[in-house]
Amino acid sequence: MRVLLVSANRERIPDPIFPLGLAYVAAAARRAGHSIAVTDLCFGRRPLYDLRRRVNEFKPDVIGLSIRNVDNAAYPLTVDYLDRHREVVDSVRAVTRAPVVLGGSAFSILPVPYMQALDGDWGIAGEGEQAFVQLLAALARGTDPAGLPGVVSRNESDASASTMVPVQRPADWATGLRPARDLFDYPRYVRRGGMGNVQTKRGCVFKCSYCTYPLLEGNRFRAREAGDVVDEVEALMKDYGRHAVFFVDSILNFPQDHVENLCQEILRRRLRLRWSCYATPVKLGREQASLMARAGCDGLELGSDAVEDGQLGRLGKSFDAETVARANAHCLKAGLRVCHTLIFGAPGETEASVRASCEALRAMRPTAVVAMAGVRLYPGTPLTLRLAAEGRILPGEVGLQPFFYVEPAVRDFLPGYLQRQALAAGNWVLPGLSPPLLPTSQRLLRALGISGPLWRLLRFSAMRAASRTKFRRPNTSWGIPNLRRKVL
Ligand code: B12
Ligand code: SF4
Predict the structure, then answer these.
(1) Atom of ligand 2 nearest to the CA of 316
(2) What would the CATH number be for the domain defined by 185-471?
(3) Sign of the CA dihedral 376, 380, 384, 388?
(4) Minimal CA–CA distance to 221: which of 192, 199, 254?
(5) Is the minimum distance from the CB of 213 to ligand 2 under 6 angstroms?
(6) Residue among 4, 43, 61, 68 whose CB has most ligand 1 atoms within 8 A, to mutate
(7) pLDDT digits (tens, 9 = 90+) for 242-266
(8) Per-domain residue ranges for the chain?
(9) CATH 3.40.50.280, applies to 2-153
(10) Given this chain, do its domains 2-153 and 185-471 carry the same CATH topology?
(11) Is this structure's pTM higher than 0.90?
Protein backbone atom coordinates (compact mmCIF):
# COMPACT_ATOMS: atom_id res chain seq x y z
CA MET A 1 0.00 0.00 0.00
CA ARG A 2 1.04 3.61 -0.43
CA VAL A 3 1.38 5.03 3.06
CA LEU A 4 2.00 8.67 3.91
CA LEU A 5 3.27 9.20 7.46
CA VAL A 6 2.86 12.66 8.93
CA SER A 7 4.66 14.06 11.96
CA ALA A 8 2.27 16.71 13.30
CA ASN A 9 4.59 18.08 15.98
CA ARG A 10 5.52 21.72 15.36
CA GLU A 11 6.74 22.49 18.88
CA ARG A 12 10.35 23.70 18.90
CA ILE A 13 10.70 24.53 22.60
CA PRO A 14 12.82 23.45 24.40
CA ASP A 15 14.10 22.03 21.09
CA PRO A 16 12.74 20.57 17.88
CA ILE A 17 12.63 16.82 18.57
CA PHE A 18 13.29 14.24 15.88
CA PRO A 19 10.12 12.08 15.54
CA LEU A 20 11.79 8.85 16.61
CA GLY A 21 8.53 6.94 17.15
CA LEU A 22 7.26 7.70 13.66
CA ALA A 23 10.66 6.73 12.24
CA TYR A 24 10.27 3.31 13.93
CA VAL A 25 6.76 2.92 12.52
CA ALA A 26 8.01 3.94 9.06
CA ALA A 27 10.80 1.35 9.24
CA ALA A 28 8.38 -1.42 10.25
CA ALA A 29 5.88 -0.55 7.51
CA ARG A 30 8.65 -0.32 4.90
CA ARG A 31 10.01 -3.70 6.00
CA ALA A 32 6.52 -5.14 5.52
CA GLY A 33 6.71 -4.11 1.85
CA HIS A 34 4.66 -0.92 1.84
CA SER A 35 5.66 2.15 -0.12
CA ILE A 36 6.37 4.86 2.47
CA ALA A 37 6.57 8.64 2.20
CA VAL A 38 6.80 11.06 5.12
CA THR A 39 5.84 14.67 5.72
CA ASP A 40 7.29 16.42 8.72
CA LEU A 41 5.45 19.60 9.72
CA CYS A 42 8.10 20.84 12.17
CA PHE A 43 10.11 23.25 10.07
CA GLY A 44 8.10 24.36 7.04
CA ARG A 45 6.81 27.92 6.68
CA ARG A 46 3.53 26.70 5.21
CA PRO A 47 3.20 23.27 6.78
CA LEU A 48 -0.45 22.70 5.90
CA TYR A 49 0.04 23.77 2.30
CA ASP A 50 3.07 21.48 2.05
CA LEU A 51 1.03 18.66 3.53
CA ARG A 52 -1.83 19.05 1.03
CA ARG A 53 0.65 19.21 -1.85
CA ARG A 54 2.39 16.05 -0.64
CA VAL A 55 -0.92 14.22 -0.39
CA ASN A 56 -1.87 15.31 -3.91
CA GLU A 57 1.48 14.19 -5.31
CA PHE A 58 1.88 10.90 -3.46
CA LYS A 59 -1.77 9.82 -3.59
CA PRO A 60 -1.61 7.63 -0.47
CA ASP A 61 -3.94 4.74 0.26
CA VAL A 62 -3.52 5.36 3.99
CA ILE A 63 -2.32 8.31 6.06
CA GLY A 64 -0.67 7.76 9.44
CA LEU A 65 -0.60 10.80 11.70
CA SER A 66 1.79 10.94 14.64
CA ILE A 67 0.54 13.02 17.58
CA ARG A 68 3.30 13.46 20.17
CA ASN A 69 2.14 16.14 22.60
CA VAL A 70 -1.28 16.78 24.14
CA ASP A 71 -0.08 20.04 25.64
CA ASN A 72 3.13 21.39 27.14
CA ALA A 73 2.19 20.15 30.62
CA ALA A 74 2.99 23.59 32.04
CA TYR A 75 0.65 25.72 34.14
CA PRO A 76 -0.54 28.47 33.79
CA LEU A 77 1.37 29.13 30.54
CA THR A 78 -0.31 26.14 28.99
CA VAL A 79 0.04 25.49 25.29
CA ASP A 80 -2.72 23.21 24.05
CA TYR A 81 -1.96 21.56 20.68
CA LEU A 82 -5.43 20.23 19.89
CA ASP A 83 -6.37 22.96 17.41
CA ARG A 84 -3.14 22.42 15.49
CA HIS A 85 -3.87 18.71 15.28
CA ARG A 86 -7.39 19.49 14.04
CA GLU A 87 -5.96 21.72 11.31
CA VAL A 88 -3.76 18.87 10.15
CA VAL A 89 -6.63 16.39 9.90
CA ASP A 90 -8.85 18.98 8.19
CA SER A 91 -6.12 19.70 5.63
CA VAL A 92 -5.77 16.03 4.82
CA ARG A 93 -9.53 15.53 4.57
CA ALA A 94 -9.78 18.46 2.17
CA VAL A 95 -7.69 16.67 -0.45
CA THR A 96 -8.11 12.92 0.04
CA ARG A 97 -10.54 10.24 1.12
CA ALA A 98 -7.72 7.94 2.27
CA PRO A 99 -8.31 6.67 5.80
CA VAL A 100 -6.48 8.56 8.55
CA VAL A 101 -4.78 6.47 11.26
CA LEU A 102 -3.86 8.29 14.47
CA GLY A 103 -0.96 7.27 16.71
CA GLY A 104 1.79 8.63 18.95
CA SER A 105 2.29 9.25 22.67
CA ALA A 106 -0.40 11.93 23.01
CA PHE A 107 -2.89 9.74 21.18
CA SER A 108 -1.94 6.72 23.32
CA ILE A 109 -2.65 8.62 26.55
CA LEU A 110 -6.13 9.62 25.33
CA PRO A 111 -7.03 7.39 22.39
CA VAL A 112 -10.80 7.60 22.48
CA PRO A 113 -11.03 11.36 23.10
CA TYR A 114 -8.64 11.95 20.20
CA MET A 115 -10.62 9.66 17.91
CA GLN A 116 -13.67 11.73 18.69
CA ALA A 117 -12.02 15.15 18.59
CA LEU A 118 -10.14 14.52 15.34
CA ASP A 119 -12.58 12.12 13.74
CA GLY A 120 -9.87 9.63 12.83
CA ASP A 121 -10.79 6.51 10.87
CA TRP A 122 -8.51 4.28 12.94
CA GLY A 123 -6.05 4.70 15.76
CA ILE A 124 -3.17 2.75 17.27
CA ALA A 125 -2.81 3.05 21.03
CA GLY A 126 0.70 2.25 22.23
CA GLU A 127 3.57 0.99 20.15
CA GLY A 128 3.06 1.11 16.44
CA GLU A 129 5.67 -1.15 14.87
CA GLN A 130 3.55 -4.32 14.87
CA ALA A 131 0.05 -2.92 15.34
CA PHE A 132 0.26 -0.49 12.41
CA VAL A 133 1.62 -3.19 10.10
CA GLN A 134 -1.23 -5.51 11.12
CA LEU A 135 -3.73 -2.72 10.54
CA LEU A 136 -2.30 -2.07 7.05
CA ALA A 137 -2.47 -5.78 6.25
CA ALA A 138 -6.13 -5.89 7.28
CA LEU A 139 -6.94 -2.79 5.20
CA ALA A 140 -5.10 -4.26 2.21
CA ARG A 141 -7.06 -7.51 2.51
CA GLY A 142 -10.28 -5.59 2.95
CA THR A 143 -10.95 -7.14 6.37
CA ASP A 144 -12.08 -5.24 9.45
CA PRO A 145 -9.09 -4.25 11.65
CA ALA A 146 -11.36 -3.66 14.69
CA GLY A 147 -10.38 -6.02 17.50
CA LEU A 148 -6.70 -6.20 16.55
CA PRO A 149 -4.62 -5.43 19.67
CA GLY A 150 -3.90 -1.72 19.96
CA VAL A 151 -6.37 -0.77 17.23
CA VAL A 152 -9.00 1.82 18.10
CA SER A 153 -11.94 2.20 15.76
CA ARG A 154 -14.11 5.25 15.27
CA ASN A 155 -17.07 3.41 16.80
CA GLU A 156 -15.51 3.50 20.25
CA SER A 157 -18.02 5.57 22.10
CA ASP A 158 -17.07 5.68 25.74
CA ALA A 159 -14.62 8.57 26.07
CA SER A 160 -13.82 7.63 29.65
CA ALA A 161 -12.49 4.27 28.46
CA SER A 162 -9.42 6.11 27.24
CA THR A 163 -6.87 3.93 28.97
CA MET A 164 -8.70 0.66 28.52
CA VAL A 165 -7.50 -0.08 25.00
CA PRO A 166 -5.35 -3.25 25.10
CA VAL A 167 -2.01 -2.38 23.56
CA GLN A 168 0.90 -4.34 22.10
CA ARG A 169 4.19 -4.34 24.00
CA PRO A 170 6.44 -6.83 22.25
CA ALA A 171 9.59 -7.86 24.16
CA ASP A 172 11.58 -7.86 20.91
CA TRP A 173 10.36 -4.44 19.75
CA ALA A 174 13.72 -3.47 18.29
CA THR A 175 14.98 -6.76 16.90
CA GLY A 176 16.40 -6.16 13.44
CA LEU A 177 14.73 -2.76 13.22
CA ARG A 178 16.36 0.66 12.96
CA PRO A 179 14.33 3.89 12.88
CA ALA A 180 14.01 5.03 9.24
CA ARG A 181 15.92 8.27 9.79
CA ASP A 182 16.79 8.35 6.09
CA LEU A 183 13.17 9.30 5.27
CA PHE A 184 13.39 12.46 7.40
CA ASP A 185 15.69 15.46 7.60
CA TYR A 186 17.58 14.06 10.60
CA PRO A 187 20.59 16.41 10.15
CA ARG A 188 18.30 19.40 10.50
CA TYR A 189 17.12 18.15 13.89
CA VAL A 190 20.71 17.65 14.97
CA ARG A 191 21.57 21.17 13.87
CA ARG A 192 18.45 22.91 15.15
CA GLY A 193 17.79 20.71 18.19
CA GLY A 194 21.41 20.20 19.16
CA MET A 195 21.14 16.42 19.38
CA GLY A 196 19.83 13.22 17.91
CA ASN A 197 17.90 10.57 19.83
CA VAL A 198 18.14 6.84 20.49
CA GLN A 199 16.02 4.47 22.59
CA THR A 200 17.74 1.69 24.52
CA LYS A 201 14.76 0.20 26.32
CA ARG A 202 11.03 0.63 26.95
CA GLY A 203 9.02 0.53 30.16
CA CYS A 204 9.41 1.71 33.73
CA VAL A 205 9.04 -0.39 36.88
CA PHE A 206 8.42 2.54 39.21
CA LYS A 207 4.98 3.78 40.14
CA CYS A 208 5.17 7.55 40.53
CA SER A 209 1.63 8.70 41.13
CA TYR A 210 1.19 11.21 38.28
CA CYS A 211 3.31 9.55 35.62
CA THR A 212 2.10 8.30 32.24
CA TYR A 213 5.28 6.52 31.20
CA PRO A 214 4.36 3.10 32.65
CA LEU A 215 0.97 3.43 30.91
CA LEU A 216 2.67 4.23 27.62
CA GLU A 217 5.49 1.72 27.74
CA GLY A 218 4.39 -0.82 30.37
CA ASN A 219 5.70 -1.47 33.86
CA ARG A 220 8.45 -3.91 32.92
CA PHE A 221 11.71 -3.07 31.22
CA ARG A 222 12.21 -4.37 27.70
CA ALA A 223 15.83 -3.64 26.98
CA ARG A 224 18.01 -3.90 23.93
CA GLU A 225 21.47 -5.45 24.10
CA ALA A 226 24.16 -2.85 24.70
CA GLY A 227 25.99 -4.01 21.56
CA ASP A 228 22.91 -3.43 19.42
CA VAL A 229 22.38 0.09 20.82
CA VAL A 230 26.01 1.02 20.27
CA ASP A 231 25.92 -0.41 16.74
CA GLU A 232 23.06 2.00 16.06
CA VAL A 233 24.95 4.91 17.60
CA GLU A 234 28.09 4.08 15.64
CA ALA A 235 26.13 3.94 12.39
CA LEU A 236 24.54 7.31 13.26
CA MET A 237 27.94 8.92 13.73
CA LYS A 238 29.15 7.40 10.46
CA ASP A 239 26.08 8.45 8.46
CA TYR A 240 25.48 11.91 9.95
CA GLY A 241 28.79 12.94 11.51
CA ARG A 242 29.65 13.13 15.17
CA HIS A 243 26.80 14.64 17.21
CA ALA A 244 25.30 14.61 20.68
CA VAL A 245 22.58 12.08 21.48
CA PHE A 246 19.71 12.00 23.99
CA PHE A 247 18.80 8.50 25.19
CA VAL A 248 15.03 8.80 25.36
CA ASP A 249 14.35 5.99 27.87
CA SER A 250 11.95 6.90 30.69
CA ILE A 251 14.99 6.47 32.93
CA LEU A 252 18.29 5.27 31.52
CA ASN A 253 20.19 4.36 34.68
CA PHE A 254 17.91 1.64 36.02
CA PRO A 255 18.38 -1.29 36.17
CA GLN A 256 22.04 -0.71 36.97
CA ASP A 257 23.46 -3.45 34.78
CA HIS A 258 21.69 -2.00 31.74
CA VAL A 259 23.34 1.40 31.92
CA GLU A 260 26.64 -0.11 33.01
CA ASN A 261 26.74 -2.49 30.03
CA LEU A 262 25.90 0.40 27.73
CA CYS A 263 28.67 2.59 29.15
CA GLN A 264 31.21 -0.25 29.04
CA GLU A 265 30.37 -0.89 25.40
CA ILE A 266 30.73 2.80 24.50
CA LEU A 267 34.10 2.85 26.26
CA ARG A 268 35.25 -0.44 24.71
CA ARG A 269 34.64 0.96 21.24
CA ARG A 270 36.25 4.32 22.15
CA LEU A 271 33.25 6.12 20.71
CA ARG A 272 33.84 9.60 22.10
CA LEU A 273 30.07 10.08 22.23
CA ARG A 274 28.43 12.98 24.09
CA TRP A 275 25.09 12.00 25.48
CA SER A 276 22.42 12.93 28.02
CA CYS A 277 19.39 11.20 29.50
CA TYR A 278 16.67 11.06 32.14
CA ALA A 279 17.77 9.35 35.36
CA THR A 280 16.55 8.25 38.76
CA PRO A 281 18.53 8.89 41.96
CA VAL A 282 17.83 5.26 42.97
CA LYS A 283 21.16 3.41 43.12
CA LEU A 284 22.94 6.29 41.43
CA GLY A 285 26.17 5.85 43.35
CA ARG A 286 29.75 6.99 42.93
CA GLU A 287 30.71 4.20 40.53
CA GLN A 288 27.71 4.60 38.28
CA ALA A 289 28.16 8.37 38.07
CA SER A 290 31.83 8.05 37.29
CA LEU A 291 31.24 5.34 34.66
CA MET A 292 28.56 7.46 32.94
CA ALA A 293 30.85 10.48 32.91
CA ARG A 294 33.72 8.47 31.44
CA ALA A 295 31.37 7.08 28.76
CA GLY A 296 30.52 10.61 27.61
CA CYS A 297 27.41 11.56 29.59
CA ASP A 298 27.40 15.32 29.90
CA GLY A 299 23.94 16.00 31.23
CA LEU A 300 21.60 14.11 33.44
CA GLU A 301 17.98 15.07 34.12
CA LEU A 302 17.14 13.71 37.54
CA GLY A 303 13.42 13.13 38.04
CA SER A 304 13.55 14.09 41.70
CA ASP A 305 10.10 15.79 41.76
CA ALA A 306 10.64 16.93 45.38
CA VAL A 307 13.40 16.88 47.96
CA GLU A 308 11.24 16.41 51.05
CA ASP A 309 10.36 12.98 52.36
CA GLY A 310 6.64 13.54 52.98
CA GLN A 311 6.00 14.88 49.50
CA LEU A 312 8.22 12.25 47.88
CA GLY A 313 6.11 9.60 49.59
CA ARG A 314 2.85 11.21 48.43
CA LEU A 315 4.16 11.35 44.86
CA GLY A 316 4.84 7.63 45.05
CA LYS A 317 8.57 8.08 44.57
CA SER A 318 10.84 5.16 45.49
CA PHE A 319 13.52 7.24 47.20
CA ASP A 320 13.95 9.78 49.95
CA ALA A 321 15.46 13.27 50.05
CA GLU A 322 18.78 11.96 51.27
CA THR A 323 19.06 9.68 48.23
CA VAL A 324 18.48 12.68 45.96
CA ALA A 325 21.20 14.69 47.70
CA ARG A 326 23.63 11.78 47.59
CA ALA A 327 23.02 11.08 43.90
CA ASN A 328 23.41 14.78 43.13
CA ALA A 329 26.74 14.90 44.98
CA HIS A 330 28.08 11.78 43.23
CA CYS A 331 27.14 13.22 39.84
CA LEU A 332 28.71 16.62 40.44
CA LYS A 333 31.84 15.00 41.80
CA ALA A 334 32.09 12.81 38.72
CA GLY A 335 31.85 15.92 36.52
CA LEU A 336 28.29 15.31 35.35
CA ARG A 337 25.95 18.28 34.87
CA VAL A 338 22.71 17.74 36.75
CA CYS A 339 19.25 19.18 36.18
CA HIS A 340 16.54 18.35 38.71
CA THR A 341 12.98 18.22 37.40
CA LEU A 342 10.44 19.08 40.09
CA ILE A 343 6.70 19.23 40.56
CA PHE A 344 5.28 21.59 43.16
CA GLY A 345 1.66 21.72 44.27
CA ALA A 346 0.72 18.04 44.00
CA PRO A 347 -1.80 16.70 46.57
CA GLY A 348 -0.56 17.04 50.12
CA GLU A 349 1.96 19.78 49.36
CA THR A 350 2.36 22.35 52.15
CA GLU A 351 4.30 25.57 52.43
CA ALA A 352 6.70 23.70 54.69
CA SER A 353 7.32 20.93 52.15
CA VAL A 354 7.90 23.47 49.36
CA ARG A 355 10.36 25.42 51.52
CA ALA A 356 12.14 22.21 52.56
CA SER A 357 12.57 21.07 48.94
CA CYS A 358 13.90 24.47 47.91
CA GLU A 359 16.30 24.62 50.84
CA ALA A 360 17.63 21.15 50.03
CA LEU A 361 18.10 22.16 46.40
CA ARG A 362 20.02 25.27 47.38
CA ALA A 363 22.38 23.16 49.44
CA MET A 364 22.91 20.70 46.58
CA ARG A 365 24.03 23.33 44.04
CA PRO A 366 22.88 21.48 40.91
CA THR A 367 23.55 22.84 37.42
CA ALA A 368 19.87 23.61 36.81
CA VAL A 369 16.35 23.10 38.14
CA VAL A 370 13.23 22.81 35.97
CA ALA A 371 10.15 23.15 38.15
CA MET A 372 6.47 22.82 37.32
CA ALA A 373 3.89 24.51 39.53
CA GLY A 374 0.82 22.30 39.44
CA VAL A 375 0.58 18.73 38.24
CA ARG A 376 -1.08 17.81 34.94
CA LEU A 377 -3.58 15.02 35.50
CA TYR A 378 -3.85 12.27 32.89
CA PRO A 379 -6.41 9.46 32.75
CA GLY A 380 -5.34 6.16 34.25
CA THR A 381 -2.48 7.38 36.44
CA PRO A 382 -2.56 6.32 40.12
CA LEU A 383 -3.05 9.98 41.11
CA THR A 384 -6.04 10.53 38.83
CA LEU A 385 -7.62 7.24 39.89
CA ARG A 386 -7.22 8.20 43.55
CA LEU A 387 -8.69 11.67 43.12
CA ALA A 388 -11.61 10.16 41.20
CA ALA A 389 -12.18 7.51 43.90
CA GLU A 390 -12.20 10.27 46.52
CA GLY A 391 -14.79 12.14 44.44
CA ARG A 392 -12.47 15.09 43.92
CA ILE A 393 -12.70 14.86 40.15
CA LEU A 394 -15.54 13.61 37.97
CA PRO A 395 -15.26 10.60 35.64
CA GLY A 396 -14.21 11.82 32.20
CA GLU A 397 -13.24 15.24 33.52
CA VAL A 398 -9.56 14.58 32.97
CA GLY A 399 -9.00 14.48 29.26
CA LEU A 400 -7.83 16.46 26.28
CA GLN A 401 -8.36 19.81 27.96
CA PRO A 402 -5.34 20.62 30.09
CA PHE A 403 -6.30 19.85 33.67
CA PHE A 404 -3.90 20.73 36.50
CA TYR A 405 -4.03 20.03 40.19
CA VAL A 406 -2.67 22.73 42.49
CA GLU A 407 -2.96 21.91 46.19
CA PRO A 408 -5.23 24.56 47.71
CA ALA A 409 -2.93 24.94 50.74
CA VAL A 410 -0.15 26.34 48.54
CA ARG A 411 -2.12 27.89 45.70
CA ASP A 412 -1.57 31.49 46.76
CA PHE A 413 1.93 30.91 47.97
CA LEU A 414 3.52 28.99 45.08
CA PRO A 415 3.88 31.44 42.17
CA GLY A 416 5.57 34.22 44.12
CA TYR A 417 7.70 31.89 46.20
CA LEU A 418 9.00 29.88 43.24
CA GLN A 419 9.79 32.99 41.25
CA ARG A 420 11.74 34.39 44.19
CA GLN A 421 13.71 31.12 44.32
CA ALA A 422 14.40 31.43 40.60
CA LEU A 423 15.55 35.02 41.04
CA ALA A 424 17.88 34.11 43.88
CA ALA A 425 19.34 30.99 42.29
CA GLY A 426 19.56 32.10 38.66
CA ASN A 427 19.59 28.50 37.39
CA TRP A 428 15.88 27.78 37.70
CA VAL A 429 13.50 27.32 34.77
CA LEU A 430 9.78 27.68 35.52
CA PRO A 431 8.13 26.75 32.19
CA GLY A 432 4.62 27.45 33.46
CA LEU A 433 5.40 30.85 34.95
CA SER A 434 7.86 32.35 32.51
CA PRO A 435 8.59 31.14 28.95
CA PRO A 436 11.67 28.92 29.29
CA LEU A 437 13.34 30.21 26.16
CA LEU A 438 12.42 32.47 23.30
CA PRO A 439 12.43 30.71 19.93
CA THR A 440 14.93 33.29 18.63
CA SER A 441 17.35 32.70 21.52
CA GLN A 442 17.05 28.96 21.06
CA ARG A 443 17.79 29.30 17.35
CA LEU A 444 20.72 31.57 18.00
CA LEU A 445 22.32 29.26 20.55
CA ARG A 446 22.04 26.31 18.18
CA ALA A 447 23.35 28.40 15.28
CA LEU A 448 26.40 29.11 17.44
CA GLY A 449 26.97 25.37 17.48
CA ILE A 450 25.92 24.73 21.07
CA SER A 451 24.76 21.14 21.32
CA GLY A 452 23.21 18.99 24.07
CA PRO A 453 20.51 20.16 26.50
CA LEU A 454 20.51 23.94 26.83
CA TRP A 455 19.95 23.89 30.61
CA ARG A 456 23.65 22.97 30.82
CA LEU A 457 24.43 26.59 29.99
CA LEU A 458 23.03 27.65 33.35
CA ARG A 459 26.36 26.73 34.91
CA PHE A 460 27.72 29.99 33.49
CA SER A 461 27.23 33.09 35.60
CA ALA A 462 26.37 35.19 32.53
CA MET A 463 23.53 32.81 31.67
CA ARG A 464 22.32 32.87 35.27
CA ALA A 465 22.32 36.64 35.23
CA ALA A 466 20.30 36.62 32.00
CA SER A 467 17.88 34.12 33.47
CA ARG A 468 17.40 36.21 36.62
CA THR A 469 16.12 39.15 34.59
CA LYS A 470 12.94 37.16 33.86
CA PHE A 471 12.10 37.06 37.55
CA ARG A 472 13.02 40.61 38.55
CA ARG A 473 9.41 41.48 39.18
CA PRO A 474 7.95 38.23 40.48
CA ASN A 475 4.22 37.82 39.98
CA THR A 476 2.62 36.97 43.26
CA SER A 477 -0.45 35.55 41.56
CA TRP A 478 -0.87 32.99 38.78
CA GLY A 479 -1.33 35.99 36.59
CA ILE A 480 -1.68 34.64 33.11
CA PRO A 481 -5.26 34.17 31.93
CA ASN A 482 -5.88 31.00 29.97
CA LEU A 483 -9.47 30.05 29.38
CA ARG A 484 -8.61 26.53 28.24
CA ARG A 485 -7.17 25.47 31.56
CA LYS A 486 -8.88 23.95 34.54
CA VAL A 487 -7.62 23.94 38.07
CA LEU A 488 -8.95 22.06 41.05
C1 B12 B 1 12.52 11.79 25.80
C2 B12 B 1 11.33 12.70 25.93
C3 B12 B 1 11.54 14.08 25.81
C4 B12 B 1 12.91 14.68 25.50
C5 B12 B 1 13.22 14.46 24.02
C6 B12 B 1 14.70 14.47 23.73
C7 B12 B 1 15.00 14.04 22.33
N8 B12 B 1 15.97 14.70 21.73
O9 B12 B 1 14.40 13.14 21.79
C10 B12 B 1 12.69 16.19 25.89
C11 B12 B 1 13.13 16.38 27.33
C12 B12 B 1 13.40 17.21 25.05
C13 B12 B 1 11.16 16.27 25.82
C14 B12 B 1 10.50 17.48 25.66
C15 B12 B 1 9.11 17.58 25.67
N16 B12 B 1 8.24 16.61 26.01
CO17 B12 B 1 8.73 14.76 26.16
N18 B12 B 1 9.01 12.91 26.37
C19 B12 B 1 10.05 12.16 26.20
C20 B12 B 1 9.69 10.67 26.43
C21 B12 B 1 10.29 10.20 27.76
C22 B12 B 1 10.14 9.71 25.34
C23 B12 B 1 9.75 10.09 23.91
C24 B12 B 1 10.33 9.11 22.93
O25 B12 B 1 11.25 9.44 22.19
N26 B12 B 1 9.85 7.86 22.92
C27 B12 B 1 10.35 6.79 22.06
C28 B12 B 1 9.48 6.61 20.80
C29 B12 B 1 10.01 5.44 20.00
O30 B12 B 1 8.16 6.35 21.23
P31 B12 B 1 6.89 7.19 20.73
O32 B12 B 1 7.29 8.51 20.24
O33 B12 B 1 5.84 7.11 21.74
O34 B12 B 1 6.42 6.35 19.44
C35 B12 B 1 5.77 5.09 19.53
C36 B12 B 1 4.24 5.16 19.64
O37 B12 B 1 3.78 6.39 20.20
C38 B12 B 1 3.73 4.90 18.26
N39 B12 B 1 3.62 6.00 17.30
C40 B12 B 1 4.26 7.18 17.23
N41 B12 B 1 3.88 7.86 16.13
C42 B12 B 1 2.98 7.10 15.48
C43 B12 B 1 2.25 7.33 14.30
C44 B12 B 1 1.37 6.35 13.85
C45 B12 B 1 0.61 6.59 12.59
C46 B12 B 1 1.20 5.16 14.59
C47 B12 B 1 0.25 4.13 14.12
C48 B12 B 1 1.90 4.94 15.78
C49 B12 B 1 2.79 5.91 16.22
O50 B12 B 1 4.68 3.99 17.76
C51 B12 B 1 5.99 4.43 18.17
C52 B12 B 1 6.93 3.26 18.21
O53 B12 B 1 6.45 2.26 19.05
C54 B12 B 1 8.12 10.74 26.48
C55 B12 B 1 7.45 9.82 27.49
C56 B12 B 1 7.41 8.41 27.01
N57 B12 B 1 7.84 7.50 27.83
O58 B12 B 1 6.96 8.16 25.90
C59 B12 B 1 7.84 12.21 26.84
C60 B12 B 1 6.61 12.86 26.26
C61 B12 B 1 6.49 12.48 24.80
N62 B12 B 1 6.91 14.29 26.35
C63 B12 B 1 5.88 15.01 26.61
C64 B12 B 1 5.89 16.45 26.68
C65 B12 B 1 4.61 17.12 27.16
C66 B12 B 1 7.03 17.18 26.32
C67 B12 B 1 7.16 18.72 26.29
C68 B12 B 1 5.97 19.49 25.75
C69 B12 B 1 7.50 19.15 27.73
C70 B12 B 1 7.84 20.63 27.86
N71 B12 B 1 6.94 21.41 28.41
O72 B12 B 1 8.92 21.01 27.48
C73 B12 B 1 8.42 18.88 25.40
C74 B12 B 1 8.03 18.98 23.92
C75 B12 B 1 9.23 19.01 23.01
C76 B12 B 1 8.86 19.06 21.55
N77 B12 B 1 9.60 19.85 20.77
O78 B12 B 1 7.92 18.44 21.12
C79 B12 B 1 4.64 14.17 26.80
C80 B12 B 1 3.69 14.23 25.59
C81 B12 B 1 2.24 13.94 25.93
C82 B12 B 1 1.65 15.07 26.73
N83 B12 B 1 1.54 14.88 28.01
O84 B12 B 1 1.33 16.07 26.18
C85 B12 B 1 5.26 12.75 27.06
C86 B12 B 1 4.44 11.56 26.60
C87 B12 B 1 5.50 12.64 28.58
C88 B12 B 1 4.25 12.86 29.41
N89 B12 B 1 4.23 13.88 30.22
O90 B12 B 1 3.29 12.18 29.38
N91 B12 B 1 10.59 15.05 25.90
S1 SF4 C 1 8.49 9.49 37.00
FE2 SF4 C 1 10.24 8.41 36.11
S3 SF4 C 1 10.67 6.76 37.57
FE4 SF4 C 1 8.61 7.51 38.05
S5 SF4 C 1 7.22 6.13 36.90
FE6 SF4 C 1 7.65 7.94 35.62
S7 SF4 C 1 9.38 7.35 34.31
FE8 SF4 C 1 9.29 5.90 36.02
Answers:
(1) 4
(2) 3.80.30.20
(3) positive
(4) 254
(5) yes
(6) 68
(7) 999 999 999 999 999 999 999 999 9
(8) 2-153, 185-471
(9) yes
(10) no
(11) yes
